[in-house]
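User: Predict the full complex structure for these chains.
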Amino acid sequence: DGGITQSPKYLFRKEGQNVTLSCEQNLNHDAMYWYRQDPGQGLRLIYYSQIVNDFQKGDIAEGYSVSREKKESFPLTVTSAQKNPTAFYLCASSSVGASPYNEQFFGPGTRLTVL
Amino acid sequence: KQEVTQIPAALSVPEGENLVLNCSFTDSAIYNLQWFRQDPGKGLTSLLLIQSSQREQTSGRLNASLDKSSGRSTLYIAASQPGDSATYLCAVTDSWGKFQFGAGTQVVVTP
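Assistant: Here is the predicted structure of the two-chain assembly.
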């Protein structure tokens, strides 16, 4: 089955710890995205990447880092510099055509809780 | 900066009634508008995507319209069912290929 997988489903972080959230897609999409969702709020963009070895900051990149070494993978690291990381994290991907941009697909999400 | 608004934030209807969900955006220079459904604790499921050159899209009981000039989109769900209970989000794509989301409308369909 084609799709996007995220792991783990639940993650607990202690103060001062870095944690990495995994996102893998087998849809052959060029673009991948990381969003954060807080209760009662819409999605806010953390980072996005439209091609391997290149990525751009979104609206709330501080305290997060990413890498894009493979087309299929776009891991997100939540660093100790992120002061309020408890949230639901969603990974997405889309193809990138000449015009317009195409449909975005989402993974099942990772719920991160700070202990 | 693009701002996307969804009103109302919550909606409750009896089964069988038609649902009308609204999405407005401040910058009409969009490429796409996409409607999603989200169940509690789950990821987003794509429902419909409307290209900027289109005025509407239909899929089964769902119909979405787009009026770029007025910065509005409406999602219609005909003959609602309890299984339609979820949060519905809209998102617009800007010229940089970034998606901007509304906060969503939480829908409850009562039997």
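Residues 30 and 50 of chain A are 6 Å apart (CA to CA).
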